[in-house]
Amino acid sequence: MNDLFENEKVGSRERLGNDAFVLKGFSLAIADDLLATVAVIETISPFRHMMTPGGFTMSVALTNCGQLGWTSDRRGYRYTSVDPITGNPWPTMPTQFLELAQAAANEVGFADFIPDACLINRYVPGTKLSLHQDKDEQDLGAPIVSVSLGIPAVFQFGGFERSDPKTKTPLFHGDVVVWGGADRLRYHGILPIKNNTHSTLGEQRINLTFRKASFSELKS
Ligand code: MD3
Ligand code: FE
């Protein structure tokens, strides 16, 4: 049902801003492989609900792969090379992930995107991600690439102040979004996920967010 709806737009591009694009269905052909790889990653670093510095437990469950992983606790948000739950490095970023992120960035004019962090968010119906900016990364010149899998979400895209007007964009299984340049620091969020079932993921949405968190080439 969702796949059918979405498929009518596969291959097209929507512009959300000067430097922000939705590539409809860009990852559809390899979506099953991506999900099989996420299943392996979560055996090494499981999904968990992190606590915000303000003391709230996030409704999104997350894990990471790559040299750096995004984490949150009472002391703040930051990137770490070690998973605080396992005490081990985050799982290596699969070549397939890296190549997908690179290809998507390249498609809209960001050449040579080499992400060192892939945050993997897991949503179930009712999960939301409140309006925020991504500013924990050192290299704000690099774009961010996001891959949506599973049940649909509505993405909110605002301005540079929390109160600025927002647009709403539905994101479906296989869609890839690239943000950079002028749009990199815009406020954004995910509205509460509606009840839905996806043919392979069931009542879940998985989002891969690729970022360049560090200036330096870290050793693993
Ligand atoms: C827009 N994740 O993890 S896609 C996040 O679908 C996050 O899980 C959402 O926002 C999700 O921080 C939205 C990623 C995204 C990331 C950075 C952005 C969208 C962005 C920076 C500027 C504008
Ligand atoms: Fe974000």
Second rung of CATH, namely the architecture: Sandwich
Q: What is the arithmetic mean of pLDDT?
A: 94
> How many strands, what sense, and barrel or not for the largest sheet?
7 strands, antiparallel
Cα-atom radius of gyration: 16 Å
Question: Could you give the count of β-strands?
Answer: 13
Taking strands numbered 1, 2, ... along the chain, how are they ordered across the largest sheet?
Answer: 1-2-11-8-13-6-3
What can you see in these coordinates?
- This protein is an alpha+beta fold.
- The protein has one domain (3-7, 14-211): Jelly Rolls (Sandwich), CATH 2.60.120.590.
- The protein contains 3 helices and 13 strands.
- It has helices at residues 2-7, 31-44, 95-107; strands at residues 13-17, 20-23, 61-65, 69-73, 76-80, 117-123, 129-132, 144-150, 153-157, 167-171, 176-179, 188-190, 205-211.
- The strands form 3 sheets. The protein has a 7-stranded antiparallel sheet, covered by helices on one side. The chain has a 4-stranded antiparallel sheet with strand order 7-12-9-10, with no helix packed on it. A two-stranded antiparallel ribbon has the order 4-5.
- A hairpin with a 2-residue loop joins strand 1 and strand 2 (20-23).
- It is globular.
- The site of fe (iii) ion has 3 residues, from loops.
